[in-house]
Amino acid sequence: MSQGSASKPAIARKSSGLSGTVRIPGDKSISHRALILGGLASGETRIFGLLKGEDVLNTGKVMQAMGAVIRKDGGAWIINGTGNGALLAPEVSLDFGNSGTGVRLTMGLAGVYDFDTVFTGDASLSQRPMGRVLDPLRRMGVQVKAVEGDRLPVILRGPETPAPIRYTLSVASAQVKSAVLLAGLNVPGVTTVIEPAITRDHTEKMLAGFGAELSVKTDKHGTRTIQLQGRGRLTGQIIDVPGDPSSAAFPLVAALLVPGSDITISNVLMSPTRTGLILTLQEMDADIEILNRRLAGGEDVADLRVRHSELTGVTVPAERAPSMIDEYPVLAVAAAFAKGRTVMNGLQELRFKESDRLSAIAQGLKLNGVECEEGQDWLSVTGRPDGKGFGNAAGERVVTHLDHRIAMSFLVMGLASEHPVGIDDSSMITTSFPQFMDLMESLGAKIEQA
Length: 450
Ligand code: S3P
Prior knowledge:
CATH class of the largest domain: Alpha Beta
CATH architecture of the largest domain: Alpha-beta prism
Number of helices: 12
Distance between the termini: 19 Å
CATH topology of the largest domain: UDP-n-acetylglucosamine1-carboxyvinyl-transferase, Chain
Number of domains: 2
Bound molecules: shikimate-3-phosphate
Helix content: 25-40%
Shape: globular
Structural class: alpha/beta
């Protein structure tokens, strides 16, 4: 969505027994990467199951502005890429809307080219730190012009010949890793990224699939060293995008919380770099059956049967954060209905998401009667399994701060709370999960625009 659109408040009410089978839209991370690499590769790329969320569509527009030809043919997106090293200088500024992934990956991809590129975004994205990507790019020789600190708008200009670097990630961020690797595609020589804690690995996998010369080595401490030979040829591919586990999380937690529920969520990406929430919920005694495990497009995929469960509080270790970084808002909602206390550690990165998610979660929980405590990098939630007194009888709404996952999480909370839960704005949900309202309604959830 673009800045300034009218906000759309919404409200969720206590529901009974969710049921049915739903298919979750395509994974957002993989969809961005498919458009970027398809737009860059020589020849034709066909993408099936692409997420049609606004974040991803913005990345598509940006690739078009740099020379990719993209069209839709039935369920497929067909891309004719420019060829590696042959992006065109964009004649317009590149607007990434709400998307950190779109902007940070493209800063790497285009920033090393010897032309000016202007990067912009909405009010939420313009408050997010870009230094984590700009620092390695500077080391490759990229010139950075920004008006204010490391915030958007930013103008990048690459040198005539960018330098290969060896870069150790200081934050566990797949966006930073991906930005450096994508930059490395246009750098002569070998670009090396060292990743102390594994983050989602879709970029590495997809680069290899498009024919990049890339190696990944993991040492005995789990540190990964990724090496990419620059300026190689990438060739168009056929890509099947699996369902997004970060979107599946919302109907999944809703079914766990609403008594009498029994739902199936089909075609969910089960990459071990993304399944921290499922593992945590299983530790909390959630009834999640993993069915029909299979490989699709090089990724693990499964169907999930989820039944209402009596949850128990747990301590979630900090090391698990990268594999469930986008799922803490909805996990915190699940924890509100669990017996005992849930403590989530290692949450420092939540402060740099579409909003300061740690404080947005804590404020939303408190507004709706949940006992919780927010630390600098942790959150503890004391649950009340029957949801008695939860919700806001006075009709006060959760402030979503332009954050789609805060919006969806609190709507899920309302389905099991005694009183309704309202949110000030649901419009951002279209950035990642445009079908959310219809899909939840089809399962029997009572959610409406307020
Ligand atoms: C993403 C990486 C994560 C995640 C984001 C998507 C990606 O961000 O929160 O929603 O596609 O690479 P960080 O790299 O900032 O952890």
